[in-house]
Amino acid sequence: MTARGAGTPGAPGGTSGVTPDTLDGTSGVAGTSDATGTSDVERLPGEHGVGGPAGEAHVAELRAETADAVHAHVVVAVDGPAGSGKSSVSRAAASALGFDYQDTGAAYRAFALHALQQGVDLEDADAVVGALPSFRYGIGTDADQAPSVTVDGRDVTDEIRTPRVTGAVSHVAKLPEVRRYMVDLFRRVIAGTDRRGIVTEGRDITTVVVPDAQVRILLTASEEARMARRSAEVTGQSAAETARQLSDRDARDSKVVDFMTAAPGVATVDSTHLDFDQTVQAVVQLVRDATASDAGTTP
């Protein structure tokens, strides 16, 4: 399945990208689905993260709009610091469970690329926020395939991983207006899945995006283990440089979200002394244990 989020060009706080007759029942989810399993999921730009009221009350309002549709699925929320294995473990666990998989970090990267392509000054917060209504984003959620990412219908899967985009992500991700926009976008992707469940991973997923998820997990590891894993993933870069970037990323992100401490009701999986398969199994078992009592069987 490919989920697409669309912003409608227009003045912030103004128009909506969804007309009333496209709304799917009371879910607040708009879009269509065809025989190929492709769904178009539209978000509402207007006041939703683009100049609307700030703070927790606004985020709660966004969550309420999609609550019914989100709760129709088993939602697994996975949070954790860089290098903890969130993406690879979450995708493998989703595949084992027969669930969809959403990499939320890809959306921030895609928006950073969009802002760069629009010539936005990333130091100008108002200009960055002003680029949100024209952001049209799509991502594949099939856990058995590498997620494909599109912006304006163009495949940018590889481009969002370039150093140019990597260096720009923190400039957009630190803005509260952008993060509120993404809350809505991520929940609409979750609501649009056509499978029984979906694993969604990324920063502040367990506490802000889907605190109402049936299963919430903080995946962590020691700093030494995370640095070693990240060094193994990155080519053409010294271990010292990789360690410095990871430390800097932790410092920046800690100003926005608390990603090292499990919130109440969030299970912690410490993978410091676990290999990849053991970590995946730990996540899968948590999901099965949490959902068995509701479904009567394991997923």
How would you describe the shape? globular
Beta-strand content estimate: 5-15%
How do the strands of the widest beta sheet line up side by side? 2-1-5-6-7
Helix content: 40-55%
Q: Write down the CATH class.
A: Alpha Beta
Radius of gyration: 18 Å
Q: Major beta sheet, specifics? A: 5 strands, mixed
Count of individual beta strands = 10
Alpha carbon gap, first and last residue: 19 Å
Question: Could you write a compact summary of the structure shown?
Answer:
With 299 residues, the protein is an alpha/beta fold. The chain is 41% helix and 14% strand.
Structure description:
With 299 residues, this protein is of the alpha/beta class. The chain has one domain: Rossmann fold (3-Layer(aba) Sandwich). The protein is 41% helix and 14% strand. It contains 10 helices and 10 strands. A 5-stranded mixed β-sheet has the order 2-1-5-6-7, with helices on one face. A 5-stranded parallel β-sheet has the order 4-8-3-9-10, sandwiched between helices. Strand 5 and strand 6 form a beta hairpin. Helix 1 runs parallel beside helix 6, helix 2 crosses helix 10 and helix 3 packs across helix 5. The protein starts with a strand and ends with a helix. About 16% of the residues have low confidence.
Features:
single chain; 299 residues; alpha/beta; Rossmann fold; globular
SSE layout and pairing:
Elements: E1 2-6, E2 39-40, H1 56-70, E3 74-79, H2 86-97, E4 100-103, H3 105-117, H4 125-130, E5 136-140, E6 149-151, E7 154-155, H5 163-173, H6 176-191, E8 197-201, H7 205-209, E9 215-220, H8 223-233, H9 239-253, E10 267-270, H10 276-295
Parallel strand pairs: 1-2, 3-8, 3-9, 4-8, 9-10
Antiparallel strand pairs: 1-5, 5-6, 6-7
